[in-house]
Design goal:
The complex is a heterodimer. By secondary structure, chain A is mainly α. Chain A contains 13 helices and no strands. In chain B, helix 2 packs antiparallel against helix 5 and helix 10 packs across helix 11. Chain B has twelve helices and no strands. The chains are: A mainly alpha, B mainly alpha. At the A-B interface, helix 3, helix 5, helix 6, helix 11 and helix 13 of A face helix 2, helix 4, helix 5, helix 10 and helix 12 of B.
Amino acid sequence: MSIDELFRFHFMTNALEAGTLVALMASSIGWFMVVRQQTFAGHTLSVIAFPGAAAAALAGAPVFVGYFVACAVGALALSAVTGRGGTRSLSHESAAIGSVQAFGLGLGFLFVSLYHGLLSGLESLLFGTFLGITNDQVLVLLALAVLVFAVLAAIARPLLFASIDADVARASGVPVAALSTGFLLLLGLAVAATSQITGALLVFALLVTPAATAQLVTPRPGLGLALSVAIGLAVTWVGLAIAYFSIYPVGFWVTSLSFGLYVVVRIARTVTARQAVTA
Amino acid sequence: MFGHEFMRNAFLAGTFVAFACGLVGYFVVLRAQVFAGDALSHVAFTGALAAAAAGIDLRVGLFAATILVALGMGMAGDRARADDAVIGSFFAWVLGLGALFLAIFTTSSSGAGDGTAGVRVLFGSIFGLSASEARLAALLGALAIVVVLAVARPLLFTSVDIDVAEAKGLRVKLIGLVFLGVLGLVAAEATQAVGALLLLGLLSAPAGAAHRLTANPYAGIALSAGLALVATWAGLVISYVVPALPPSSMIVSFAAAIYLGAALLGRRAEIPKLESVS
């Protein structure tokens, strides 16, 4: 067992390349998602990826097409139910999101039932696999990552402004509603890309946990974003490496690593805060 | 249709589960705890698969996990609600654990076809309930219904205005804890009927529709339970008539359709005011 062994097989280098691209996208978009408090919406998008993939399998189309179409449609649907801006009613909004999510999952299960052959693949749709990632998939992910980062770089500043204080941003001429829809679409893209590696249910490990950890450490946007990306990359690489040598699924390792890190940082924060009070 | 035993069992269990989900769901939406319900549904999955991996009855793991975690959330959350990002980080990990137990379970059991246990937990198997399982589900559903109805008034009060409720001497924290305990029980119940992934639909869609249609809390509670029943019965019937359509998908689709209808038709009802409670 040595580190070199990780790079000996083609499927493993593909997995590492794909994992890197996915971690970059998920943890940077995720940072904005946590700032905007759209965690529930993000979870719903990640869950909607599943019926998309199942529908694509049923129709005989490539699975990744299903991921992207479903996430784009889901993002637009969510922005239609929630994105009014102004005073949002938390109760109504969360009930709406919950209904969209459950309906999506119900559809997914329906498609899986109609397409009997998929049942064995259901686990990997939900919990991911890092085996058998093709060169083409890596190229598609690379193109997507470039697109996502170009858009994000262009809208980062107004988006941050609108996320922190929507009313002031609107008053100073920032197109808050358009930004909100655009961000959900971007989130949908990142989720669809991540789903292919981590499965629909475990996207969250890369989307929310690194961002939440980064926000515990620093409130500064630039630093927080960088930290979130660094954590996302680290847990993906280490998770893939451990999964290669162990018999347990990669999803378990990635989620456990990122959550473990979150808990450690949280405890460290509490301890230092106590010391600051007593000192 | 009722000549078949599995349909009688499904209707018995489904009726009580739906009624309990509708009742509890009304408060879940009112207290804006839908995301917590979502998290509990993932806990249900992991609990059941942990039991499967350990070789004990799935339901033991299911009920133990959801009720303990629900109470834990109540303790940790204090009066303030836990941050979405915290809940999200937590349940991403819980799902990862679930994937681990699924892997342990499928690799350790030699018999083929055991991989379907994971699917059954995620998406339910209401047509597969035995008579005794259905009776137990009905009994636990009834228990949840009785508890919620017993605490309905103080629970409404604390949900609508926690500060005034506390000032009037209500034991806000205890009521919140009882509520979360019942939510855990109902989540475990509903997992058997519609599965861990779909129970959110039964919790949030009928309740969301009821909130859209009326601002009167008591009418809303009744409406929410009624709509959940309608969705469940309709889903069971259509799935019986067209066997290719799985019952859990149909139940949740009907619930979502009801919500959509209420959102389009209903005026945007206000969240209940304090005066309407007392």
